[in-house]
Amino acid sequence: MIKSKPILIGICGPSTSGKSTLANLLTKKLDAEIIEADNFLLAKPRRKIAGYTSWEHPKSMMMKDFKRSLKDIKNGKIIIIPSKKMTEIFDKKIHPKQIIIVEGFLIFHDKSFSNMFDLKFFIDLPFEKITQRRVNFCGEEERDYCEKVVIPEHLIYRQKMISSSDYILDGNKTKSRIEKETLKIIKDKVKV
User: Fold this and answer.
1) Alpha carbon 152 to chain centroid, angstroms
2) I need a surface site. Which of 11, 59, 82, 186 has the fewest CB within 10 A?
């Protein structure tokens, strides 16, 4: 166990907004530990929208396990979480460090989650850019899923997540610009 309770930093935002990229950059710069919400996705979610399985909703995740893991690490305990998404196999040990970075598209979806974080960042990105990034990353067949599932599901929680955030980051900026802005905020707010 560490001497003081870890500082939980949340990075939230829509699909392909740059959450994972920023979290990984910050993890290296701050010697932090990372928890990816995607690793708590169910192997077979039951929620269907427009004929698609939705991975973009709290019902698609092991929310009780995720919440318990965050509470435990926040209290300085070692946790065991899934190392990969959609496996439901808890096989990765996470030791508490001074800073724990948690990234995910739904981590501020309700107060019981958002209140656990000491600093909350939301990366905002226009919907057309979300769609284009998903198409670039996954292929043209992803466009329909994005327009019929990703964006509508995001809209359900968007306002709650934004209003729960301490800082809104512009996802249109370069990775290095977002990283610099976020690091400055963290260093101003947290003794690192």
Assistant:
1) 18
2) 59
